[in-house]
Write a structure and sequence with these properties.
The complex is a heterodimer of chains A (about 180) and B (about 110).
Chain A (H helix, E strand, L loop, with lengths): L2 H22 L3 H21 L3 H26 L15 H23 L12 H17 L2 H22 L8
Helix pairs in contact in A: 1-2, 2-3
Chain B lengths: L3 H21 L3 H30 L5 H31 L13
The chains are: A mainly alpha (about 180), B mainly alpha (about 110).
Chain lengths: ~180, ~110
């Protein structure tokens, strides 16, 4: 048992527990806060995998921006405690979903362990400065090889912004 | 020692929880959060594969990390539009139960 393995096991327990907490809490605000906890643990995994930039964008964009947006909408709508009665239309959906999810987990764990030989030992980078130097190289790759996808992403963000404004705007004399 | 297996299995478990959330919850906000969870699980797998490739070849490529960067940007765009839609549906229906969202006319 190396210390790295212990950190991994504890963090993965936290990640899975917070994901389940997100799924099963009655109050939507608690769901959102559990999801923030999950995102932060995944950010620590990214640090362990030698991806400091991704870890920081995970925290700022996911745990920061996206989840604040979620909390804002939940509080705006007053949707904290929606009565989540099981669906009348399809009462068999819930047990079927559990069975399918269990099947998916068992299948994927079996395939990963039994078939795929992914036994490369992953180690964290030796020092922080080492991974910060890799950050510079990553930026060079991003603005050299991936420049076109980067620009397309910026256009996508612009389109999303315009779309959100159009949806939120009141139509003059319309129903909204 | 941590092998790539462990990260991929964690990613698979998180993805399954997300898929389960989409299937069993009736609140569209929670369904949205489950989708974010699934995207996140896929990101974890990307970074883990990238790191193991990097270790195997002894050279840094960053393709996995850059892909994750794009996925994060797309998720942010998706959340902005999706939440605007949910707010709009709430304004017209005064309710956001997913079972009642079965008409396109509003």
């Amino acid at each position: 048992m190396t210390s790295e393995l212990i950190v991994f096991l504890v963090l993965s327990l936290v990640a899975i527990a917070s994901a389940l907490g997100m799924l099963f809490s009655r109050n939507t605000i608690y769901s959102a806060l559990f999801l923030v906890l999950n995102f932060v643990t995944v950010a620590v995994f990214y640090l362990m995998l030698g991806a400091p930039f991704i870890a920081m964008s995970q925290i700022t964009v996911y745990a920061g921006a996206i989840m604040v947006l979620f909390l804002f909408v939940i509080m705006l709508l007053g949707a904290e405690n929606l009565t989540s009665s099981p669906s009348q239309a399809m009462p068999w959906q819930r047990p079927l979903a559990f069975i399918l999810a269990l099947t998916l987990t068992v299948e994927s764990v079996y395939l990963i362990f039994a078939r795929a030989k992914l036994d490369t030992v992953i180690t964290a980078p030796d020092t922080v400065t080492n991974s910060m130097e890799s950050l510079r190289e990553m930026a060079m790759t991003l603005f050299d090889k991936f420049l076109l996808p980067f620009e397309v992403t910026s256009i996508l963000l612009l389109v999303a912004m315009v779309g959100a404004i159009v949806l939120a705007k009141k139509e003059k004399g319309g129903r909204a | 020692m941590i092998s790539t297996n462990y990260y991929i299995i964690l990613s698979a478990i998180l993805f399954t929880i997300g898929a389960l959330g989409v299937l069993i919850r009736r609140n569209p906000l929670v369904i949205f959060m489950s989708i974010e969870l699934m995207l996140n699980a896929a990101n974890l797998a990307f970074v883990a594969f990238g790191r193991s490739w990097e270790i195997a070849k002894g050279e840094a490529f960053f393709n996995g990390q850059i892909f994750v960067f794009f996925v994060i940007a797309v998720a942010a765009a998706e959340v902005a539009v999706g939440l605007a839609l949910i707010v709009e549906i709430f304004k017209t229906k005064k309710n956001i139960n997913i079972d009642e969202m079965n008409s396109l006319k509003g």
